[in-house]
Amino acid sequence: MIPRKHLIYAVLAILIISAHTIPVSASSRSSRVVRVIVGLSVPCERVLETLSTLGRVDILIPEIRAVVLEIPSNLVSYVASLSFVRYVEEDRSVRTFSEVAWNIELVNATDVWATSSRYGSAAYGYHPTVSVAILDTGVDYAHEDLRGAATFCIVSLRNGKTFYRGMNLANCADPNGHGTHVAGIVAARLNSFGVAGVAPRVTLYAVRVLDPSGSGYISDIAKGIVEAVKGPDGVPGTEDDSDILSMSLGGSDSQVLRDAVLYAYSYGAVLVAAAGNEGASSLACPACYLEVIAVGAVDSRYRVPSWSNRYPDVVAPGVSILSTLPKNRYGYSSGTSMACPHVSAAIATVQAMRLARGMNKLTPNEVRNILVGTVIDLGSHGYDPLYGYGFLDVLRLVQVAVGT
Ligand SMILES: [Ca+2]
Ligand SMILES: [Ca+2]
Ligand SMILES: [Ca+2]
């Protein structure tokens, strides 16, 4: 014998299909179609035929006598007045955080968004004068999940032979993919599709200093740093200067790179760089400089992969990170390159929230001190070569830095 419950489902399924074929009357077509949940005081199947003459019956929950109707809005009050209707309510879309990957949750970025609503867009990294420069292979500014994020482009390539600064973002398109992946970790939009970055409303400056193969001259990177600090107006020390320089790149020590870092630091830019992926017992440069926050990688279980260089300042997620790739694609990447932008975006959020609150921006030295004081200590107690001071916690960082 078929259980009674299953029988009801079978009957209802047929009725739903037939409901689709019932045309909406011409008069009601002029009215906007709305999606409502209708609670019934009688078993659904008894009144389904009646309801299906009004509009499309979409799904049913017989256990709690609820149906979902798509009907013209001018019929809502009529449905509500029917004797067998207990309630009518709008079928609102519930926002899921499925676009928020594990790494964004792990650094507690979502807690910042959820608990800082009085800061508006600043809790998501936006302030008119705060920008993160992505020094990399470019940024696919046209990506559907980075829409509007990049506002300024600098190209410094091939030993200075190719140079551009301006608003033509096409010059900063990303033929490699690395820069777009990094950019997504910072700034992918919270828009119910794709992925979301740590600071999903922040402004980016695309600074293309690495060629399509992902390498660049030290001189190109040094010039990119200086130009990013100057910002669109070409003058250092003004509001449009880049506030955070995110450098998912590294190499050997260099005097010109060191000088460029000191230039940026002197103008209040916070420098963040990848620790490097050589499994080395020392940092790649520019992460190696005292003025630069060096970021190592951990996986989803806080384990440091063998390739993440030792002696970082802090660690952040850097293994199997899902982010944006050129041409509206998405993909996974691993590396300290992926860890670095988590920290860059967190600092942008701090600066944006402080400005929104009428406070001054923190200096690079203040940022560093608060960051290392708010990370989660992992591994052996206190600073250690694997985790540095510990794991990025954006919520604690914001609480201390902004005083929420
Ligand atoms: Ca998104
Ligand atoms: Ca400027
Ligand atoms: Ca430790």
Describe the protein in words:
By secondary structure, the protein is an alpha/beta fold. It has 12 helices and 14 strands. It folds into 2 domains: 4-90, 2-Layer Sandwich (Alpha-Beta Plaits); 102-402, Rossmann fold, CATH 3.40.50. The chain has helices at 4-20, 26-29, 44-52, 76-81, 102-106, 109-115, 178-187, 218-230, 255-266, 336-356, 364-374, 394-402, and strands spanning 33-40, 56-61, 66-72, 85-90, 131-136, 150-157, 162-166, 203-208, 244-247, 270-274, 292-298, 314-317, 321-325, 329-333. A hairpin with a 4-residue loop joins strand 6 (150-157) and strand 7 (162-166). The protein is elongated and about 80 Å long. The chain binds calcium ion (3 copies).
Summarize, please.
The chain is 31% helix and 20% strand.
Helix and strand topology:
Elements: H1 4-20, H2 26-29, E1 33-40, H3 44-52, E2 56-61, E3 66-72, H4 76-81, E4 85-90, H5 102-106, H6 109-115, E5 131-136, E6 150-157, E7 162-166, H7 178-187, E8 203-208, H8 218-230, E9 244-247, H9 255-266, E10 270-274, E11 292-298, E12 314-317, E13 321-325, E14 329-333, H10 336-356, H11 364-374, H12 394-402
Parallel strand pairs: 5-8, 5-9, 6-8, 9-10, 10-11, 11-12
Antiparallel strand pairs: 1-3, 1-4, 2-3, 6-7, 13-14
Helix pairs in contact: 1-3, 7-10, 8-9, 10-12, 11-12
Bound molecules: calcium ion (3 copies).
